[in-house]
Amino acid sequence: MPPIRVLTALDQARTQYYHFKAIVIAGMGLFTDSYDLFCIAPVMKLIGRVYYAPADDPSRVDDDGGRPRPGVTPPAVVSANVGVALLGAVAGNLVFGALGDRAGRRRVYGASLLLMLCASVGSGFSVCRTRGCALASLCLFRFFLGVAVGGDYPLSATIMSEFANRRTRGAFIAAVFSMQGFGILASSMVIMAVAAAFDRYTGRRAPLDDTPEAADLAWRIILMIGAVPAAVTFYWRMAMPETARFTALVEHDVVKATHDIGRVLADLDLASITEEEVAAFRRTTPPAQFGLTTASSYGLFSRRFLRRHGRDLFACASAWFLLDIPYYSSTLFQSQIYRPWFPPAEHVNAFQEAFNVAKFQAIIAVASSIPGYIVAVLLIDRVGRRRLQMAGFFLMAVFLFALAGPYDRYWRGHATDAWYIVLYALTFFSANLGPNTTTFILPAELFPARFRSTCHGISGAAGKLGALIGAIGFLWASQDRDRSKVLAGAGYEPGIGMMYALIILGGICLLGLAVTYLFTPETMRRSLEENESDNGNSQAAEGDAGQRFQELAELPKSPASMVSSHVSSSPSTPVFCLKLKQ
Question: Which residue spans traverse the membrane (predicted)?
Fold first, then answer.
């Protein structure tokens, strides 16, 4: 089948202003995702001070039986808030990914952003101010926020991949994903600003004085500010045209695809190719008067899909699953890193504690996360997705083992050693340089247009399941095996210890490296249509069938017997499953 020239023009288009505009518009969902993920740790500090104050629980005393400890959010509550958001993201990936292939990318893109906006505001309001009601409503709204954020993953990646040219497609999608790094930095800056303002407003309370009621307002403001990026970009999302690939390949409207892309991209000679596109499309579309259908209509759950794309879907979903276990675990490991560098909770008030956590997150974002994303943008179309993914998994394993091996014998007592933070920062750098970026890109490049968003959603849902295992499992497993060393009064139970938890995470990274080596194909500098085609014989069969179909379309109208005899003479007709109307 000859290529549709408007799609060829897209692949060959120079980089233009609209590409950068699309990066910002598509990246706001990822920006909000990381904002909400990384702001929850300081928010949990404030919630612990407000709703689990020592006055409410006299059992919270220090090891010497002296003054009560500051309020600490129980691990079950932390797990619930993290878990419901990730479960929502699983559902959002699957639901919005499927809708993107059925209703169109643009039609559901605004809906996911609107849900994200409403859920962010709702998380801040959380209905009421009593502990049980506030936390239950917070979990409810964070679930819907997770649905919206999860839905944004397949839509943003698919839209950017279908707008980009083949030379810089990887860099554009990586740039969309890099908005996560800036979301981390923004959340830290907002928390520091809000905490500093409230600390000054309340007169810089003593550490163990009653937490002011203003703290209950502070965490709500922090969560609601997450709605601002979504609100700012809502108009531009609704004004985006549908992608030309969806319109041409799924809706079979080449004229509209040509018109839509001409509205946003300049220097494309679209006027001269419109008539040729329509003619070519008619030649390669089954003639309605003969009642012919093509085998390209196979479904997502068919054996043919499994044979053609099952390996790629397994590669994408399993790599994302394996990546998110250590990646989300590492975000929770931060508490073990920053604790020796800042005053203990007994020596700071609620706002100062939240400020210190956010400050450390900002340092990690600037020193490792954002540079990792930037290097990925620069290298993704030079080195390739597969090599970067393998290198990232390997380096993550090396740095996690370097933290784990001497943890009990050395790092535990030398937590203020600069190399301790450097090794931790390098795990984030390696993840963002490699698999954290490439697992977002590959599902948007490997699958046919009519399955692209759905398959990306399935891969993303697998990743969020891994994140759920990593975040909640690590929170409990990393606790010390000695009960006397577990944080008193917080409700934690002894685990396997930090050293063994880190060793397991390093082993998972090596497994991700093996999966990538064995199953992941390279997509660099190939058009989306080339990436989605079959390997070997199936590609040749489709080419022969397309040629026969052109010959059939060019014949004058003839009786059904002529069509039947012409079609039956072609050895490739089973690929097209030609069928006559009765």
Answer: 76-96, 172-197, 217-236, 313-333, 360-380, 387-407, 419-442, 454-477, 497-519
